[in-house]
């Protein structure tokens, strides 16, 4: 696809990245369906909590000597990277 002097192509990695993004968004939809604030978590909420704990423990061990603010600063980046890689490898 040519736009001006630029050439854009849709390759297999682009397809798999879109599939991964759709899987992550589908997971978010199932977790937040009906408000997502039920006192008893459903299976999707339990899955997301398991992923959060699985990533949180190594982050706390590796960045253990630093203050809580630093951990909170890096945790979202590490969590998103891990979750995206997990779903990317599951495809």
UniProtKB/TrEMBL annotation:
GO terms for cellular component: proton-transporting ATP synthase complex. Its main location: membrane. Belongs to the ATPase A chain family. The keyword Mitochondrion applies. It comes from the Eukaryota. One of its GO terms (molecular function) is proton transmembrane transporter activity. Keywords: ATP synthesis, CF(0), Hydrogen ion transport, Ion transport, Membrane, Mitochondrion, Transmembrane, Transmembrane helix, Transport. The chain crosses the membrane at residues 6-28. It is a multi-pass membrane protein. GO terms for biological process: proton motive force-driven ATP synthesis. Pfam families: ATP-synt_A (PF00119). This is F-ATPase protein 6. It comes from Vitis vinifera. It is found in: Membrane.
